[in-house]
User: Which sequence fits this backbone?
C-alpha cells in the first residue's frame, strides 16, 4: 500500500469511488519508471516527468481488472499540480481529475467540464491546445501542463502495459 | 490606515497558525518566466504626415520562488521602451508579493499587487488579447497595468474565482480629462497610504469556454485641496470555444468632486480561429473590434471636454500564433473624435512571446 498525505489520499479515494462505485477494490503502488522508457516518453511528449515514479492504481471488480489509475504531477507556473488519469486496459482515458492545485491562477483546469475533453483519448490522439483541447482564458500555463501531462500518461501506458499486468 | 494595520495583523496571525506542512510532491523551486513585445506603429492624425515608430514596448521577467507548499514569492519586473532617459521609458516593479495559499478557496497576498479589474490587468501578456497594443479601454478606463502596494485575498469556489484587495489609493490631483485615473496611479512609489483603495472581483468560469465577471474599486482619494470619492464598476466577459473568440468589457468610473463626473467606455471583439479549419499554426484569428471610450464622459467643470476626449473606434486585425508561445499581430484601426469627427488612423504590427 501507498502512504500518501491524508488530504491527497482522501481525494484519490473520493475520485475512485465516484468513478467506479464505493464498493470497488483497488491496489496501489509507487511505480519506478524504467529509465529508457522515461527518456522515450519525455521526448515524445516534450515534457519531463515530475520524478522517477508515478503512482499506479489497479482498479478491480472481483478478480477482473477494470482500469488503471495513474497519479502524477506536472508543474504549473511554479508549483506542482497533482492529477489522476484512469485508463481502460487498451489505454484510452476513462476520466481525468485534478487532485490538488496549489497556485492562485489557473485553478479552472480542475473543472470537470474541461477535463471531460480527455475522455476516450489515447496515445494516438491529438493533444494540441486550442486545436484539439479547448484553452481556458487566464489559465494558459496550467492548461498546457495538464494536457501534456495526460498525454504523457497515455504514452507511458503503452510502454509499460505488459510489465504491469 | 489603522484599520488596515489591524487587518494585516489578523491575516498574518491566521496565516501563522495555519498548518503549512508540505506533501511529498512538493520541492522548493525558483522559476523564471516572462514575456515581451516589439511594436511598429504608424499613426496619422487627420491630414497630417504619419508618425512611424518601432518600439520594444515591454520586456518583462517573472521570478517566483516556492518556499514550501503554502508560502511563495511572486514578482514581475518590467522595462518599458528599451531604456530610461529623462523621465521616459520605465522600469517598474509591477508585482512582488508573498503569497500564502491556504486552500483553493482562500489565499493571502502581501506586497505589490495587481488590481483585480477587467480581463487584461491581471492577464496582460500579448497572447491574451486582440490588437497589437492593448485596447484603448484598457488604458483610458482601466489603467493597465494597474498595481499598488497592499494586501489581498483570493480564492476559488464552485466555478467562482474571487479577489479582494486593499491597496494604495489614487492621487486625485492627477486625474485628467484625457485619461481619467491613469495618471493618478501611485505605482507604489513611496505611496501615500492614508486612504486605501478597496477593490474586489468575482468571475464565474463554470461554463466551458466562458469567463464572465465584474469588479468594483472604491477610494476616497486624498488630494492637496479636495478628497475625491472615486468609484469604479466594470463588467467583462470572454468566450473561447469551437474557434469563436468573443470579448466584451464595459466600465464606468464616477467622481464626486474635481474636473470629472464620469469616465466611461466599452469594447466588443469578435474573432474566429481559422487554425482548426486550415490546419495552420496554433491560432490564426482574424477579428473585428468596435469601441467607445470617453475618459471625460461627463464633466463637473463644464466646457466641451466631454466631446474632446471621447472617441469611437473600429479595428480589424489578425492574431497568428505559430505555437503557444509566440504571436504575430497586425491591426488597422480608425478613431473618430466626438467633438469634430477628427479621424486618427493607425496601422500596427507586433511580435510577442511568453515563456
Assistant:
Amino acid at each position: 500500500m501507498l502512504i500518501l498525505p491524508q488530504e491527497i489520499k482522501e481525494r484519490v479515494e473520493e475520485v475512485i469511488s465516484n468513478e467506479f462505485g464505493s464498493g470497488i477494490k483497488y491496489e496501489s503502488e509507487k511505480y519506478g519508471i524504467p529509465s529508457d522508457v522515461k527518456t522515450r516518453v519525455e521526448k515524445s511528449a516534450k515534457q519531463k516527468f515530475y520524478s522517477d515514479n508515478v503512482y499506479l492504481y489497479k482498479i478491480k471488480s472481483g478478480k477482473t481488472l477494470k482500469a488503471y489509475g495513474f497519479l502524477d504531477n506536472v508543474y504549473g507556473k511554479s508549483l506542482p499540480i497533482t492529477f489522476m488519469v484512469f485508463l481502460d486496459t487498451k489505454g484510452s482515458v476513462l476520466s481525468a481529475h485534478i487532485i490538488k492545485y496549489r497556485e492562485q491562477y489557473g485553478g479552472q483546469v480542475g473543472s470537470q467540464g474541461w477535463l471531460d475533453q480527455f475522455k476516450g483519448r489515447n496515445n494516438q490522439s491529438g493533444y494540441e491546445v486550442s486545436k484539439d483541447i479547448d484553452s481556458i482564458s487566464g489559465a494558459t500555463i496550467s492548461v498546457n501542463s495538464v494536457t501534456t501531462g495526460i498525454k504523457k500518461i497515455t504514452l507511458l501506458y503503452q510502454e509499460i502495459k505488459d510489465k504491469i499486468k | 490606515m489603522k484599520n488596515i494595520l489591524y487587518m494585516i495583523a489578523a491575516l498574518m496571525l491566521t496565516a501563522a497558525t495555519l498548518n503549512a506542512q508540505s506533501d511529498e510532491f512538493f520541492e522548493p523551486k525558483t522559476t523564471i518566466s516572462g514575456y515581451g513585445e516589439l511594436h511598429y506603429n504608424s499613426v496619422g492624425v487627420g491630414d497630417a504626415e504619419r508618425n512611424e515608430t518601432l518600439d520594444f514596448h515591454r520586456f518583462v521577467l517573472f521570478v517566483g520562488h516556492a518556499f514550501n507548499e503554502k508560502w511563495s514569492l511572486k514578482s514581475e519586473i518590467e522595462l518599458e521602451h528599451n531604456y530610461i532617459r529623462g523621465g521616459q521609458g520605465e522600469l517598474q516593479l509591477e508585482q512582488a508579493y508573498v503569497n500564502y495559499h491556504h486552500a483553493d478557496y482562500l489565499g493571502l497576498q502581501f506586497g505589490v499587487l495587481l488590481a483585480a479589474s477587467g480581463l487584461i490587468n491581471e492577464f496582460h501578456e500579448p497572447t491574451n488579447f486582440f490588437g497589437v497594443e492593448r485596447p484603448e479601454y484598457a488604458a483610458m478606463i482601466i489603467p493597465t497595468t494597474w498595481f499598488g502596494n497592499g494586501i489581498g485575498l483570493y480564492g476559488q469556489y464552485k466555478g467562482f474565482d474571487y479577489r479582494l484587495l486593499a491597496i494604495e489609493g489614487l492621487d486625485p490631483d492627477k486625474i485628467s480629462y484625457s485619461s481619467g485615473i491613469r495618471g493618478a496611479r501611485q505605482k507604489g512609489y513611496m505611496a501615500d497610504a492614508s486612504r486605501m483603495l478597496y477593490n474586489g472581483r468575482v468571475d464565474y468560469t463554470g461554463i466551458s469556454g466562458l469567463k464572465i465577471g465584474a469588479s468594483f474599486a472604491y477610494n476616497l482619494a486624498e488630494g492637496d485641496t479636495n478628497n475625491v470619492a472615486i468609484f469604479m464598476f466594470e463588467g467583462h466577459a470572454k468566450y473561447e470555444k469551437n474557434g469563436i473568440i468573443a470579448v466584451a468589457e464595459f466600465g464606468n468610473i464616477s467622481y464626486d468632486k474635481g474636473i470629472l463626473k464620469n469616465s466611461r467606455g466599452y469594447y466588443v471583439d469578435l474573432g474566429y480561429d481559422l487554425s482548426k479549419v486550415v490546419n495552420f499554426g496554433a491560432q490564426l484569428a482574424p477579428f473585428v473590434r468596435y469601441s467607445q471610450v470617453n475618459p471625460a464622459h461627463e464633466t463637473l467643470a463644464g466646457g466641451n471636454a466631454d466631446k474632446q476626449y471621447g472617441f469611437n473606434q473600429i479595428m480589424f486585425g489578425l492574431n497568428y500564433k505559430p505555437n503557444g508561445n509566440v504571436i504575430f499581430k497586425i491591426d488597422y484601426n480608425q478613431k473618430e473624435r466626438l467633438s469634430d469627427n477628427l479621424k486618427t488612423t493607425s496601422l500596427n504590427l507586433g511580435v510577442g512571446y511568453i515563456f
In short: DSSP finds four helices and 16 strands in chain B. Chain B touches chain A through 46 residues (CB under 8 Å). Residues 77 and 93 of chain B are 5 Å apart (CA to CA). Residues 29-354 of chain B form a domain with the Porin fold (CATH 2.40.160.10).
